[in-house]
Design a protein that fits this description.
The protein has helices at 38-56, 72-80, 85-102, 118-130, 159-164, 204-216, 230-244, 275-281, 285-293, 304-325, 338-352, 357-376, 380-396, 409-423, 427-439; strands spanning 3-6, 11-14, 22-27, 60-65, 134-137, 140-143, 180-185, 200-202, 222-226, 251-255, 258-260, 263-264, 300-301, 442-447, 450-455. By secondary structure, the chain is α/β, with parallel strands linked by helices. The chain binds zinc ion.
């Protein structure tokens, strides 16, 4: 059974959803004002691997990742560039999805936009005012953190200590330094919406409460984000739910920060390398491999040399897949037995232990060496079965082999014909050509960038 850490209790405990229930996973998504960087890539890949593993374990998962499309940073950039905030947000969101698709991250089942949830947020702020957990000031509505007895729980520090080191913008009207804006009063030239407590726009912390509860319902299983969101963002989300008397996330998970040459990867430091920079230079799978080599809660150093080394390692995966693809199909055992089954168990054990991807990868790469040794010795059955188990294990992590040197010309021609048939609505022909490719050992994958061929090495399931 999958055991996962929870930041609130600081315990690793079994994930035991009600049988048949869907596991709700809410991950704080991007504020769309610029291109995504490597830190965003890590965040998305960590939760992508978690989702893939939960699904491999037979759990049904509903993955929600919000898009913050109204925020100071978007408005500031729009003003600087004399553009509309909506235009900045749309452009940055398109960049986000394009980069995440190239990283091979599964798209969330839902990606709600803050601006589509204004009515729910207005209602939420009104309820907090009604419960006297919020108060109005001249620049908006603030949350009164004093109403939440265990404020600071996620950071495991009391409020005074929390704020001792934090920069708090002076606001004479705030009742306590930790209080935060739920609703920011309208200013000329900024987007705003009508509300009974005055026109304005929502604060960032309110958005995730409205959308997570609105989509996943009370007491949803998992709330995730980057470690930099623990305080104040997640604490402030939690505080609102507490004040509303609504059961919130059962468990809090955070991915560690990513550094490049010892500097924290953050847009505010202005030292980021964008994901597009990385993807232009390296195999898109290299970042995933680097991310999986570290435990998701640990800090991760991902300088250019680390990424380049991972790219080289990927060639070993591809070479094994190629080798397996060339084996006579009679050598393929129907079910994983012996060493292959043992490998599957070792990987599952590691993944179930709070998503220990470094140990899982360690087992997979020793399996890879062993499979090659068996194949070298002419053991096609043992080497083939173990090799397939290695590839299947890597695929669960999203590390899918690609054919070195690409597909052969004949396969490429079949793919082109199949795409043309599909574009023309002739699905019968398209399916027949796809089956023909499958018979030749090629799997067709349709992605946002078009279709491509993968060496099909996993036995039919
Ligand atoms: Zn959030």
């Amino acid at each position: 059974m999958l055991r996962l850490y929870d930041l609130a209790s600081e315990q690793v405990a079994p994930l035991a959803p009600t049988p048949g229930a869907t596991v709700g996973l809410y991950v704080c998504g991007p504020t769309v004002y610029g291109p995504p960087h490597l830190g965003h890539g890590r965040l998305v890949l960590v939760f992508d691997v978690l989702r893939r593993w939960m699904q491999a374990r037979g759990l049904s998962v509903r993955h929600v990742e919000n898009i913050t499309d109204v925020d100071d940073k978007i408005i500031d950039r729009a003003m600087r560039e004399h553009r509309r905030p909506e235009e900045i947000a749309e452009e940055a969101e398109a960049q986000w999805w394009a980069a995440m698709d190239r990283l091979g991250a599964l798209r969330p089942h839902e990606s709600p936009h803050a601006t589509d949830w204004i009515a729910e947020m207005v209602e939420l702020v009104a309820k907090l005012l009604e419960r006297q957990a919020a108060y109005a000031t001249s620049d908006g509505v603030y949350f009164d953190t004093r109403v939440v007895a265990d404020y600071g729980l996620l950071k495991h520090q009391d409020v005074e200590r929390l704020l001792a080191g934090a920069r708090v913008a002076p606001n004479e009207e705030k009742r306590a330094p930790a209080d935060f804006a739920l609703w920011k009063a309208a200013k000329p030239g900024e987007p705003s919406w009508e509300a009974p407590f005055g026109a304005g726009r929502p604060g960032w912390h309110t958005e995730c409460v409205a959308m997570s509860l609105g989509i996943l319902g009370e007491g949803f299983e998992l709330h995730g984000g980057g470690a930099d969101l623990i305080f104040p963002h997640h604490e402030n989300e939690r505080a609102q739910a507490v004040a509303l008397g609504r059961p919130f996330a059962r468990r809090w998970l955070h991915s560690g920060l990513l550094t490049v040459e010892q500097e924290k990867m953050s847009k505010s430091l202005n030292n980021y390398v964008t994901l597009d920079d990385l993807l232009a230079a390296e195999d898109a799978r290299a970042l995933r491999l680097v991310v999986c080599r570290a435990h998701y809660r640990s800090p991760l150093e991902a300088g250019a040399d680390v990424i380049a080394q991972a790219s080289a390692t990927l060639e070993r995966i591809d070479a094994l897949a190629q080798r397996l693809g060339e084996l006579p199909s009679a050598a393929v055992p129907p079910a994983a037995v012996g060493e292959a089954a043992a490998l599957g168990e070792r990987v599952a054990e590691a993944m179930d232990d709070d998503l220990d991807t470094p140990s899982a990868l360690g087992a997979l790469f020793s399996g890879l060496r062993r499979a090659n040794a068996l194949l070298d010795a002419g053991d096609h059955v043992g080497g083939g079965a173990l090799g397939r188990a290695v590839i299947e294990g890597l695929e669960i992590l999203g590390l899918v082999p690609v054919a070195p040197g690409g597909a052969d010309a004949e396969a490429e021609a079949l793919l082109a014909a199949r795409d043309a048939a599909r574009a023309g609505g002739d699905y019968a022909t398209a399916d027949r050509l796809r089956d023909e490719l499958a018979a030749r050992g090629w799997r067709v994958e349709d992605g946002p960038a078009g279709s491509r061929l993968r060496r099909d090495v996993a036995p039919a399931r």
